[in-house]
Amino acid sequence: MVEAGEDLRMSVAETTETRPPSEAEPDRPGPAGTTARRGWRGKLAAVAAVLGGTALIAAHASFYGHWLIDDAAITFAYSRNVADGFGPVLQPGAAPVEGYSNPTWMVLLALGKLVGLFDHGTLFGVNDQILFPKALALACCAGILVSFYFGAKTLTRRPALVTFIAGAALAAIPSFVIWCFSGLENSFYALTVAALAVLILRAVQGGRLLDTQVAVGTGLIAVLAALTRPDGIIYAGAYPIVVLLFLKRDLLGRSVRAVVVSVAGFAVPYGAYVVFRWFEFGRLVPNTAVAKGQDPPNLDDLARPGEIISYAGWLVVAVAVACLVTLLVRPSRLRTGLVALLVPFGLTVVAYMVLEYDWMGQLRFATPIWTLGAFGGAVVVVEALAAARLRGRIALACLLVVALVSSVSGLYTQGTTYRANVKTAFCIVAERDAQAINGFADILKLPDTAQVGLIDLGGTSLGSRLRILDLAGLGDKPVADYLHRDDLAGLRDYVFGKAKPELITFVGSWVTTLQFDQDPRFKQDYALVFLNPPIGNSTVDSRNWVSYHVRRDLVDSAKLAELEAYGQKTLPPILEQNKTAGRRGCANVQPGIKAA
């Protein structure tokens, strides 16, 4: 354990070198105007650092155009229905199923709808279903940098410089930018983790770690993290671990009380949501967790941090670690703060190791690692340079340049590769599936209570007028249970024997994954309406490998021909556009949209 008496109560003489201006010795007497100018310069530097870093992040985000991942639109659908008074359901009148795993993000979007900024039409000529989530993400990124500044003030005399460097580092990482601006919850999740880390850091540096306000604050922020992503529950352990690290025998009773308060601050609201979840949805975990499954971690997962190091660049990480070790060798307030900061950072790494591989790519679950890693890296590099002698500074600066050049090349490749082939786009799904389904339903004169079985849920849940049977299980409890048990035969029995959707559509290899192509009932009960077969690269072109099917008892030969003609007229132009315009925007998606 770290001795708090040495590190938290050091004398002025021992710590002046590492204290920031706000906590070092008072300025020598001078003209009042000089002191005021210094204050304004500091404030202007802080504002410039936050705005500059945010601008760099926004510039990188613009590189990916209007793209949003389709899974984000699942949360959009829930936020729409919550705001419209239908409750947390995928579609009005549908059974409550927790097909989202980010309640806080869903609530933020619902609030955006209530005030007229989301899901109403356009903002500045852009579909607000695209612009508002991106603007909200940018605000979260600005909040992250503000947190960085206040954290850096306790560690360094150069908080504005550290903040700007950390912001520039985040802006340079495609994984961070892509997922923060994907429409998913990553940006708010990163903000909660940054806020928690900075609160703990400032409490340690200010000798207030055991204060009740700090204990309650850490618990409440951990709740926000846990209700933004399920793995966020791990951050409830950050405060207790830090208290244990700095534990002193004479403060044992107070330390125990503080930990109990923090745990209660987390457990009470989080437990209340779990109770709500049970009574509202009939599960103790989100339906998405059941559908996707989560195997226990194994020894192979210990190697997963290597993915992070390889993505960022081995040399950059090595330089940052070397700077960290150099600063940890000598006892100081800076060392104390870095030890405190390493706790939440370590938890981000543990959470990443435990989580299953994500099909969306670009290390989607690594966002908290990039967040705290950029902050900590900026601090240790700036302080190592400041502490080194002239020759050491020159050597470290040269090494940094080499490391950054080697890293930037890899990051640029990651960004351009993803830009050229973004994953399942919200607008592609809305235009490809929702419009086609509505058109087919109108030809068949199906009521709104009819069902369509499908895979890509987001854009379709916003735009389809039919009830949705989610064959991927996120929005359907029985399907999720079958997938959780890996019972594909039972899933098909459920579809063909009980659900009997009027329409079914498949994309990519899902028809094979769910083994519908091997079940004779599929061809027996459903007629093919439109097929765009697997042609080309499975990575690039699978978004256009689509098929649409109608239940045979609903059509005769004439009606089937009419459906086929509609499909041949409306779908090929959209599929052709999908080959080259995955980052395009689309019109506001509302129930009942159809191709022009």
Describe this structure in words.
It is a single chain. Helix content is 62%, strand content 5%. By secondary structure, the chain is mainly alpha-helical. The protein has two domains: 4-25 and 33-420, no CATH class; 426-578, D-Maltodextrin-Binding Protein, domain 2. It has a five-stranded mixed β-sheet. A two-stranded antiparallel ribbon has the order 1-2.
Keywords, please?
disordered N terminus; 5-stranded mixed beta sheet; 2 domains; two-stranded antiparallel sheet; 7 strands; mainly alpha; 596 residues; D-Maltodextrin-Binding Protein, domain 2
Overall spatial form: elongated
How is the largest sheet built, in terms of strand order? 4-3-5-7-6
Question: What fraction strand?
Answer: 5-15%
Fraction of residues in H or I helices: 55-70%
The largest β sheet comes out as: 5 strands, mixed
Q: Over the alpha carbons, how many angstroms does the gyration radius reach?
A: 27 Å
Structural class: mainly alpha
The count of β-strands is 7
| Low-confidence sequence ranges | 1-29
Please give the alpha-carbon distance between the first and last residues: 68 Å
Mean pLDDT score, rounded? 91
Q: Helix count, per DSSP?
A: 26
Total domains: 2
Describe, in short, the structure shown.
This protein is mainly alpha-helical and 596 residues long. The chain has 26 helices and 7 strands.
